[in-house]
Amino acid sequence: VQLQASGGGLVQPGGSLRLSCAFSGSFFSTYAMGWGRQAPGQQRELVATISSDGSTNYADSVKGRFTISRDNAKNTLYLQMNSLKPEDTAVYYCNAGLTWWGQGTLVTVSS
Hints:
By secondary structure, the chain is mainly β. The protein contains no helices and eleven strands. Strands 2, 4, 5, 6, 9, 10 and 11 form a seven-stranded mixed beta sheet that branches. Strands 1-3-8-7 form a four-stranded antiparallel beta sheet, with no helix packed on it. 32% of the residues are buried.
């Protein structure tokens, strides 16, 4: 399994970004997938997960602002991030099966 996240960048507080994660391997649709993030000096935390049947869960810190989704036909995972806050600044990583982590993409929320 190989994972490559993209879509990060600099955004103002209150803005939006959409992250994508390309999955290389077999049986994407059977994996639970997730997004984690790691801010400077902090541990990596899992902020959103989606099961193979589409059930989702979110950390309290992002609930109501972030939406995780998947397109099994394209082997791609998404994270729509709205109402971004400076404390959302971190490197964002996608995860497959709670086992594999890909390369991250940097999100910076700043005015």
